[in-house]
């Protein structure tokens, strides 16, 4: 029982922060667009990485420093790209474009779902801190336990991810009415853009350090 609770505590401490994954899921919750799908993809990636870390593969990243650099630059480019798109969107009038919500026609909905999957996966897999925290740190702490205690620890961390991502996604829908106006949507896009630029800048500092 203790390894399970420790897994929950550590998993929660690693994901409860302003990061690209959280910002994206919250954004989809506010927009009420494929909230379940966005949370599911982010949770799925976390689950896979937690299992990989608990299995001991974190040492591979630790002994190959160049992998960290590649992840950092990939994350910087992805965050800058998404931030730029959000910034451009903040200057557009949402009323001039067709909404991409759940009640669209088939073709547009499919494209939107595909973009949600790609974007959520990008935020998850191109975030170097995911590998450093989830795979290396969590994996290292999981290594102190023997089977089956290690499995309980990993399951606790997984439960923290599930509760967190779905919690912030559907929790964000409660404030959705504040962003239904054109001005509200522009403000949301601008805030998301600023978050992405700041996170990209932080990653760039890590590269130059």
What does this entry look like structurally?
The protein is an all-alpha fold and 209 residues long. The chain has one domain. Helix content is 78%, strand content 0%. The chain is built from 9 helices and no strands. It has helices at residues 2-15, 20-31, 35-54, 58-63, 65-90, 106-125, 128-142, 149-172, 182-208. The longest helix is centred in the C-terminal third of the chain and has 27 residues, at 182-208. It is globular, with a radius of gyration of 18 Å. The N and C termini lie far apart (41 Å).
Could you name the key traits of this structure?
209 residues; mainly alpha
Question: How would you briefly describe this protein structure?
Answer:
The protein has 209 residues and is mostly helical. The chain has 9 helices and no strands.
Rg on CA atoms, Å: 18 Å
In the predicted model, the low-confidence regions spanning at least 5 consecutive residues are: 97-110
Secondary structure tally, helices: 9
The backbone outline, from C-alpha atoms, is globular
Helix-strand blueprint:
Elements: H1 2-15, H2 20-31, H3 35-54, H4 58-63, H5 65-90, H6 106-125, H7 128-142, H8 149-172, H9 182-208
Helix pairs in contact: 1-7, 1-8, 2-3, 2-8, 2-9, 3-6, 3-7, 3-8, 5-9
């Amino acid at each position: 029982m203790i390894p399970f609770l420790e897994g929950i505590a550590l998993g929660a401490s690693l994901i409860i922060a302003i990061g690209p994954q959280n910002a994206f899921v919250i954004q989809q919750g506010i927009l009420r667009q494929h909230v379940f799908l966005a949370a599911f993809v982010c949770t799925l990636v976390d689950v896979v990485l937690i299992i990989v870390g608990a299995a001991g593969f974190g040492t591979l990243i630790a002994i190959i420093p160049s992998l960290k650099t590649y992840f950092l630059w990939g994350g910087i480019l992805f965050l800058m790209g998404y931030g730029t798109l959000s910034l451009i969107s903040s200057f557009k009038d949402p009323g001039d474009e067709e909404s991409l919500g759940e009640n669209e026609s088939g073709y547009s909905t499919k494209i939107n779902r595909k973009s949600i999957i790609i974007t959520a996966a990008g935020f998850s897999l191109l975030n170097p801190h995911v590998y450093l925290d989830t795979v290396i740190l969590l994996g290292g702490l999981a290594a102190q336990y023997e089977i089956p205690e290690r499995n309980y620890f990993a399951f606790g961390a997984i439960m923290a991810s599930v509760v967190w991502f779905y919690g912030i996604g559907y929790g964000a829908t409660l404030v959705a009415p504040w962003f239904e106006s054109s001005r509200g949507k522009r403000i949301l896009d601008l805030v998301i853009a600023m978050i992405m630029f700041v996170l990209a800048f932080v990653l760039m500092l890590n590269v130059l350090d």
